[in-house]
Specification:
single chain; 240 residues; alpha/beta; TIM Barrel; 8-stranded parallel β-sheet; 16% strand; binds pyridoxal-5'-phosphate
Length: 240
Amino acid sequence: MSELQENLAHLRARIEAACDRSGRHPDSVRLMAVSKNQPPSRVAEAAAAGLRLFGENRVQEAKIKIPQCPGHLEWHFIGHLQSNKARDAVARFQVVQGVDSLALAEELQKQAAKQARSLPVLLEVNVAGESSKFGWNPDRLLSEFQQLNALSRLEVHGLMTIAPYAVDPERVRPVFRRLRELRDRCADLLGAPLPVLSMGMSGDLEVAIEEGSTMVRVGTALFGERPRRTVDSDTDSPDL
Ligand SMILES: *Cc1c(COP(=O)(O)O)cnc(C)c1O
């Protein structure tokens, strides 16, 4: 087995164990490979190992990389998106995770209309109120939710969050729980389910799954430590 295959087997065991503990089926959690800073060859290796869902957090990097990767992969944008990159993001990504303001949502609506498509999105919430992170304040999201939902080209599938870094992942359990509770309140406003909760990364995915995550976004635990960025020409998101 290659190192990536070993990492993947270990990751799947972690996901299964967390699902077991919380009485969930392992198929209820999707595994996203976060391929930022990784070359196309690593994406191809991950695809050959059976992964289909990939995440990138810089439009400029993705524009160059995605065409060099195997076809038929599903790509999600997972970072903070500047409005002036909305057109390229709509052209390159199946899903934009990390819609963090009404202004950005309106720009995505405009670009999706121009490109004659509908765009599935997740709304990013800054649950812990960290000043260093993007995302909605929970109260503001509730008050703007109906306006977001009125944007006809956007399909709101759920919420995403990036938890604060913690050595002990138990410490961020309340963040994941609050995202789930907020999702439930938004679903009530909508009168329809919001099935996707994108939460949990390499260090905290078990706790996120126990709190209801339906998608974990994993970079380091799959690919190993990230190489430094090679495409350096934009600043969509701060490095995590
Ligand atoms: C980099 C990144 C991840 C993956 O982080 P790891 O700790 O390497 O698993 C997940 N989500 C987002 C939004 C990221 O930018």
